[in-house]
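Write out the 3D structure for:
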Amino acid sequence: MRVLLVTQHFPPETAAGAKRVGAFAGSLSRRFALRVVTLEPGYPDPRLYAGLDWRAQDAARGHEVRRRRAFRPHGASLVRRALREIGMSAALVASAGGRADLVLVSTPSMFLAPLAWMSARLRGARFAWDVRDLTWRYARESVRTGALLGWLLARLEGVMLALLRRTDLVIAATEGLAAVLRGQGVPAGRMVTIPNGVSRELLDAFPDPPPPRSGRPRVTYAGLLGYNHGIGILVDVAARLPHVDFTLVGDGPERATIESRLRDGGPANVVLRGYVTDAADLAALYRASDVLVNHVKGTPTLDDIVFPAKTFEYFATRRPVVHAGRGWAAELLRERDLAMVVPPGEPEALARGIEQALADPVRARERCERARRLVEQDYAREAQAERLGEEIARRFGRGGAGPAP
């Protein structure tokens, strides 16, 4: 069976989406004749990959990889960004070429989905959509809009939901997202939940509980500095905990605001680092940390669907986690006692949560071991990717090895 995978993000990029789709590609290529169409490495900045021979890596993957120019979305208005994403999506789909029995698209960008669906129908192929978030709804909740833009966003959401109801296979990245889609009329029989996870390599890098650290405690956030994450709150938390060092690692649209706050009299116990692409460097940052922290803004959609992918990575490191958020993910973490959970948007509450995690190392270690067992048993990335291959083979035909078309 010939499978065409269209995605904005792909290794050697190292964000959650790229890791997820990279694992999918590895599994699918062992079962089917796979062709991947993606962008040149560019997230969050193409300069990060300037010295990397990613073309040689592509050639060694065992399946064809076609790439278009890198794309960086930050720093544009909502409308302009949408237009640029439509152009990028159209270029990716137009580059696919060849025949396919199944077209699989992984979003964001959300505009990839309708264009890839049309391409699939023209090819006489089945269509599968890996849905990682509801970007169209985020825009309605996070940005002030006038009447016209609000109407356009509502129509866009209607188009996306109509397409999801017609998709042959919907792959939801979280149980919360799957529940929302079912509530919007997406047939449960055409949906499967494949969560994010952690690689065996990362699990093997942290085989034992960490030894006690000396010196000042360190709290680390590593991930996207995005609008939905609200990581700027950690600047306020750091001001309340002058005896604790904070390291913020990553890039994204909120980075410039955080940099400005730190320059203009921000607390001295915050270090803002750039995006880390090397797995060994990121592991070293985790080893130098006493607490790892998440923050997700409280909005109806985020509360319903988000389980930050970095949480599984945090759990693999056996470090205590403080999660600021609401909704189903917060309830799951609280019920299973896997992390310290506090409300989002409240610096005092987040500061207290960090202090409690540092003050009770025995309970923190118990939580860490429960969380570690959870990801080992249920969230190994390679096993989740194999589930997708099995699901596609079961629904659409038997897998078979062979060269890409």
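The mean pLDDT is 91.
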